[in-house]
Amino acid sequence: METYGIIIARGGSKRIPGKNVKMFCGKPLMAWTIEEAKKVSGMSRILVSTDDVEIARVAKEFGAEVPFMRPAELAQDLTPDLPVFLHLLDWLEEHEGKLPDALAHLRSTGPLRRAEDMEKGIELLSSHPDYDSIRAVIPTPLHPLKTYRLEGDTLLPYIPDEVSGIHEPYNAPVQSLPKAYASAGYFSVIRTSTLRDQNSMTGEKILGYVCEAGNATDIDTPFDFMIAEARMRERLETSKI
Fold first, then answer.
1. Which among 107, 109, 54 is positioned nearest to 81, based on CA atoms?
2. pLDDT digit string (tens) for 174-222?
3. N or C: which end of the chain has fewer CB within 10 A?
4. How far is Cα 69 from Cα 101, in angstroms, rounded to an integer?
């Protein structure tokens, strides 16, 4: 199964200006994702879709391809991932005349992602041809049956008892509830046919596999950045021992 790694990174980050190229433990943030992805034998290319010249320069410096600059209309604050992936596939078909079997979604905001987890995800999807995609998950930090919604001043369970089939799960020990998982944006692989034929980033049949929560940092705020740097420094120090 030929798989390309895809990093979608736009300029204009508001919470952390220049986030994708901000220095993180001695390298631009996105460099960590590129370098780890290059270790994955199941990923034949690493492509970056960006609208930003500086992001493109850094991506190339660290070994990724930037075959085009993404149109501004596909680099807005609320632009979803799907049209960006479809644009990339259309470009590849028009300019190279061929498409990979699947695209691996690599968020540059996850610098602690491990190559072995990416390798495992690609291998699992390849060995399950009846599945549309695969997504890495971590144990959810807050169980969904422990969440609420407000109607005026009234606190109500976000997931009603009649849906969960469990009476007052918000009062039950979390260990007694069914295990729940979150994707955390860590890693996913989507078949090209799923993207194009189903117009979806997942399709209907999704494989899942559990990864270590400590590797699934997703940087969105300055506090996230600080915590992720601390974790990376700890990893780097441990590797020297």
1. 107
2. 999 999 999 989 999 999 999 999 999 999 999 999 999 999 999 999 9
3. C
4. 23
Give the total number of structural domains in the chain: 2
- Enclosing domain of residue 109: 3-139+182-240
Is 130 found in the same domain as 112?
Answer: yes
d(CA 61, CA 59) in angstroms, rounded, equals: 5
Structure tokens at 161: 């008892």
Residue 153 buriedness (CB in 10 A; 0-12 / 13-18 / 19+)? exposed
43 and 135 within one domain? yes
* Share of the chain residues as helix, strand and coil, in percent rounded to the nearest 5: 40, 20, 40
Residue written as tokens 């001043």?
153
Give per-residue pLDDT as tens, 39-66.
999 999 999 999 999 999 999 999 999 9
C-alpha closest to that of 180 among 208, 156, 199: 208
| 12 and 93 share one domain | yes
